[in-house]
Design brief:
mainly alpha; Four Helix Bundle (Hemerythrin (Met), subunit A)
Length: 195
């Protein structure tokens, strides 16, 4: 990648990651503690388990990512899929630690190091390959989190994207602005729609 292309890609990656964090936060905020830990069926993960897994995965992958393998020897992946025994605050702190490792890693990437090889389970990756791998893994689980949350939640749901039957009104109200992407839009972006 050329330096200007690299920086554009890095910026777009950071914005995409931030948008998925907004979706996770908006989903988790709607769940009671019981719903956070509820499994919709036997053998199906709860939202809490998925947050625990993502926290562990992201912390392993992105802590010291330029100098150490992304599968850290102290990671115990199997326990990530067990019920969380702590409280909500502890769970979210665990998840936040992993998320912080990811966002801190993205902040360290620049046009001069973007082509540096890094490793995950001994497999060589470019930084763009590793980030793409990580983001697609994360979005897979964000989709699960959203679906499970909708299944276990009791009561009204605050839509995170365009509510059913409101596409036309949404487009008229948000056309040409970051708000057109609902929760995925950057809330700090200039929302002045241009004709």
């Amino acid at each position: 990648m050329e330096p200007t292309d690299s920086q554009a890609w890095i910026d777009a990656t950071a914005a995409t990651v931030a948008s998925y964090r907004r979706m996770i936060d908006a989903t988790v905020e709607q769940l009671s503690d019981a719903e956070l830990h509820a499994r919709p069926a036997k053998g199906i993960n709860s939202v809490a388990i998925l947050l625990r897994h993502l926290g562990g995965n992201l912390r392993s992958r992105w802590t010291n990512f330029l100098t150490t393998d992304g599968e850290k020897p102290n990671r115990d992946r199997d326990t990530e899929f067990q019920d969380w025994k702590g409280d909500r605050t502890e769970l979210l702190a665990h998840f936040d630690a992993g998320w912080h490792a990811l966002t801190s890693a993205i902040e360290q990437i620049n046009p001069s190091n973007i082509n540096q090889p890094i490793f995950i389970r001994g497999e060589r990756h470019t930084i763009p390959q590793a980030l793409t791998r990580s983001i697609t893994h994360m979005t897979y689980h964000v989709g699960q989190i959203s679906l499970i949350a909708r299944i276990v939640h009791q009561g009204d749901w605050q839509w995170l994207t365009i509510p059913p039957g409101q596409s036309q009104q949404h487009n008229q109200r948000t056309w040409g602005s970051a708000s057109s992407r609902s929760v995925f839009g950057d809330p700090n972006a200039d929302d002045d729609a241009s004709p």
